[in-house]
Write a structure and sequence with these properties.
The chain contains 7 helices and no strands. By secondary structure, the protein is mainly α.
Length: 221
């Protein structure tokens, strides 16, 4: 498994767990707002977990396959461009190198040498911004999401089931906040983004989700 595929699987795992936590927390909090029956809450949570697991897995599979189809089309287009307008593609790559501050002579030499060894992949990378050598697996991403979503959903289901009735809603909210902070931080770390901003965004989204579903559920109490 190459680096790109490892990152893709990790991304699918983190996002799957995050969605499992958030989606099922919203469901069980909403049902708890309308019904104090632990059986009803667990049944709703389990239904949401199963539906979300299938949905997330299929979504990852379709998404990765769509990306791979787009990359294949880009390779075909670039191959045609190299056959019909090789000089134009050379000029494009050379100008791109020059834009980074490389001298015209050095950019021309680098372009010639790189295209001489692997012209289709080099030209595609420079024109479309992805490395054709880096492959991602739709099946691996789907499997990662399929495992991560129900794993994440277990936390809100366990919290709202095992905690005393008097404090289970607050306890579940606190447990979800901690879990969303962890997944938000991890997702930001994978994307080299601002960790604390991602954590805050994730937690706020979770609180809003649970607040809305609880409010709606309480209308039917």
């Amino acid at each position: 498994m190459n680096l790109a595929e490892k990152i893709n699987v990790m991304r699918a795992s983190v996002m799957g767990a995050n969605d499992g936590i958030l989606s099922v927390a919203g469901i069980v909090i909403g049902v708890a707002g309308a019904n104090t029956s632990t059986h009803a809450i667990l049944l709703a949570g389990l239904s949401g977990m199963l539906a979300g697991t299938v949905s997330m897995a299929m979504g990852e599979y379709v998404s990765v396959n769509a990306q791979r189809d787009a990359e294949k089309n880009a390779l075909i287009k670039e191959s045609r461009a190299l056959d019909t307008d090789y000089a134009g593609e050379v000029a494009f790559i050379q100008q791109k190198y020059e834009a980074t501050g490389i001298s015209a002579d050095l950019a021309a030499q680098a372009t010639r040498e790189m295209l001489a060894t692997d012209r289709i992949n080099v030209a595609t990378r420079e024109r479309y911004g992805f490395d054709p050598h880096e492959k991602t697996s739709a099946v691996a991403a789907a499997m990662a999401s399929m495992i991560a979503f129900p794993t994440g959903s277990l936390l809100p289901m366990a919290a709202i089931s095992w905690l005393p009735a008097s404090g289970r809603i607050l306890g579940t909210i606190l447990a979800v906040i901690v879990a969303l902070s962890m997944t938000g931080y991890t997702a930001a770390a994978l994307g080299n983004a601002n960790r604390y901003r991602a954590m805050l965004r994730n937690v706020v989204a979770g609180i809003l989700t649970m607040a809305v579903t609880y409010f709606v559920g309480s209308l039917f109490a």
